Amino acid sequence: MDQRPAEKAAPVKRARNSEKTKAAxxxxxxxxxxxxxxxxxxxxxxxxLAGANKRLxxxxxxxxxxxxxxxxxxxxxxxxxxxRALSLDQYGPVDAMDRLVRFTFRHFLxxxxxxxxxxxxxxxxxxxLKTLPDILALHSPLVGQITTIVERxxxxxxxxxxxxxxxxxxxxxxxxxxxxxxxxxxxxIFARDLSGIDMVQERxxxxxxxxxDYLRTKPA
Length: 220
Description:
mainly alpha; 0% strand; globular
């Protein structure tokens, strides 16, 4: 009989899932920067919230400024991906605009950290956003998409032609952004719970109606 001791199995090394770790750090960064602003945010807190080693965080993203830029870019990329997923070209102009307005409103509502993050960047006078080389290219398809929807509506005689797509999108975003970012104060001022489902649905429907009414109004 073989009396040699059984060989011990080599310890299994856990593969590092870098993409999963990076995603967790970005999510944690959203929360920390949105809650405390750029100056008040702490890398230690972000690493702890992400369940990641701080040295690993620096390895993936560099310093605090680089991490903030990554969080900011990721936030814009996320909303742009959502807009592309709407596949608005397959809908008529009214339905397409309806869907875009509702998506934008719901995105702000479902991600209250996003308006807070944008407020932080505005307090910084967009100094980090200005350094992102991809930011203009990221938004160009959105402007083109809105232009196409308006042109299709104008060709059918249901939308006005004198529409600036950038101004229109600013109005669409504002209808959701202001509601979400000022929900707490407006709820107190008007003694209504603006987070209630009835109020949210009413506001969303009004946002859609306001945009469509503007597009259907003939210029003076």
